[in-house]
Fold:
Amino acid sequence: MGSKSFYITTPIYYPSAKLHIGHAYCTTIADSVARYHRLAGEDVFFLTGSDEHGQKIQEKAEAQGIKPIEYVDKIVAEFQKLWDMLNISNDDFIRTSQKRHEKVVQEIFRRVYDKGDIYKGAYKGLYCTPCESFWTELQLDENGCCPDCGRPVKEVAEEAYFFKMSKYADRILKYIEDNPDFIQPVSRRNEMINFIKQGLDDLCISRTSFDWGIPVPIDEKHVIYVWFDALTNYLTPIGFLDDQEKFNKFWPANVHLVGKEIVRFHSIIWPCILMALDLPLPKQIYGHGWLVVDGSKMSKSLGNVVDPVELINKYGADAIRYFLLREINLGQDGNFSELALVQRINADLANDLGNLLHRTLNMVGKFQKGEVLAASGRSEVDESLIADAMATVKTFDEGMAGMKISTVIKAVWAFISRANKYIDETVPWALAKDVNKKQELANVMYNLVESLRIISVLIAPFMPTTAERIWQQLNMPTSFADVRLDDIKTWGGTPAGMHIGEAQQLFPRIELEKEDAVPAAKEKKKDMPKQDNTAKDDEITIDDFGKVKLQVVEILEAEPVPKADKLLKLKVNTGSEVREVVSGIAKHYEPTQLIGKKVILVMNLKPAKIRGVVSHGMILAASNGDELEVVSVDMPAGSVVK
Ligand code: MSP
Structure:
C-alpha cells in the first residue's frame, strides 16, 4: 500500500531569542532533503518546531512581566514567519506547549514509569541554565564551566524523578557498534561510543524549581525536565497516540538532523527512552557542523549574529539557501560571509545559471521564433552533453539519498558549465546563418532547452522558487508541482513543437560598490566597469578584491625579532584563535606601544617563514616616506573589514 515513506526532523528550537543564520542552515538542509525525497516520489513527513518549556524561558517571561506562553507565542510566530520566508516545506510545526504534545509526554512518562524504569530520587548536580543541562564534575570544561557553552554552572539539589538510563547502556552501545550508519558522520559516532564507555548515569527527568513545563502525571508538583519533553516531540505529530496507521508509516524516523552538540541527546538518551517504550530506534542521527561568521563563533558580545530575515530581504531566499547548502560540507563547520555570498550569487547564479537560461531563451526566440523544434540525429558533442546530463541525474539521485548535498550541487553546477560550453562548441549563431544547418540548429536548441528542463528539476530541492521560474520561462506544459525525478531520468522529456515563454532575469548581478562592501570600490563608482573582462591592467575586479580576507585583530604580545632591526614578532587574537605575525614596523613602534591595539590583518595571506618565524598574515599600515602608522580601529577582534 502507498509509496515509500520518509520522515525527517530538525531539532525543535528554543524560543529564547530570535533565530540566526545557524538555525536557518539546519532547517534548510532538512528542507532540501525532504524536497528531494518528494521529488523521488516518496511520501514525506518533514517536522520542525519549538522547544518551549524550561526555566530559562520562564525567567525571560518574568523579566518582561508576561506569562511564559505570551512570551513564546510572540517568538514562535517569528520562527514560523522565517520558515515561510525561507520557503521551508515542513508538514507540521510542533510546539511543546501544545495540548497534543502534553498528552504524548504524559503517556510516555506513565508507560516508562509502569515498566519500572522511572523512580524518585534526589538530584544534586551542576546545572547549566541556558543549555538546560546537568553535568557531572568530570564533564565540566577546564574552567569548571558548561562544556557546551562555556558559561558557569550552578549547584542544585532537589527531589526528582529519574529515568533508568544506565539499564540500557550496554544495549545502546551494542546498537551503535552494530549499526555503522546510525550516527553520522563517523567522527560523531566515535565520540558517542567513547562517551557511553565512560558509563551512563540515570537521567534526571523532572524538576520542582520552576513550573513552566508539562506536569508529571503522577506527581503534579514536578514538571518534566526539558529533554524528556523535547525529544518525544518527534512522536507527537505522526500519530503516536491518535493514528496508528500514520505512526506505523513514519516511525522509525529516517533521520533526525541535529547540530553536533546535541548528537549525544539524540543518539543516547533518545534511543534509551525508545527502548524503554519498546519502540524501534530512528534509522539515523546526522550531526551537522556549526556555522561561524567571518571566521568567528556568532555571539551577541561580538555583535556578529547574522539575522536571516535581513539577508532574505536583501538577497532573496534562494540565494541564501544556495549559499548555505553549496558552501558547507555537511558534518563539518562552515563559514558564512556576506562577501562570499555575493560572490556566489554573481558567479554561480547570475553568471552560470542565469546566462545559460538567458542565452538559450534568446536564441530560441531569435532563431526559431520561440519554437522548440524536434531534434533529429546526434553529433558527438550532443552525445557527450546528453551523457553528462544523465550522469548528473544519477549523481544527484545517489548523492541526495546519502545527504551529500554540497557534492551534488557542485555536480549540478558542473553540468550547467558544461551546457554553457556546449553553446560555445556548437556556435548556434553561425548555424543560424546557414540554411543547410537548420536541423543542426534545431538539435542544439532542443538540447539546450532539455538541459534546462533537467537543471530546473535538479535545483528544485535547493532553490525551489528559481527552479519553478525556469520551468515557467521555458513554458513547459506540465505543472512543476507534479514533476518527479523519474521525469528527468530519460533524455527527451521536452515536447517538440512547444513555445518557450518570456525570458526574465533570474538573479541580477550585485554590484558590490552599491553594498558599501569595499570603500575603495566606492570611490571608483563612476568609472567602475560593469563587466569584469573590460577592466584595465592595473585595476582589479571586485571579485579579485574579495579574495583578500581582512579582519580586525588585537595585538596581545610584541617583541623584536633577533638580528632583524626592522621586524617585530606579534601575537594577535583574531577573535577565534591566536596567531603569530611578523611585521616590518620595528623602526616605528616600541613593542609596548602596540599591545592592545586593534589593527587590520590580511587573514588569508599564505604563511611565510621570516627569519625563522612563521608569519601567518600581514598587518596593514599606512606609509608616507619615512612615516608609518599601523591602521588601527576601535572594533572587536574578529570584525570583518570590507
Ligand atoms: N531545543 C534544543 C533541541 C531539542 S531537539 C529535541 C536546542 N535548541 S537550540 O535552539 O539551542 O538549537 C537548535 C539547533 O540549532 C541545534 O541543532 C544547534 O546545533 C543549532 N545551531 C545553533 N547555532 C548554530 C550554528 N551557529 N550553526 C549551525 N547550527 C547551530 O538545542
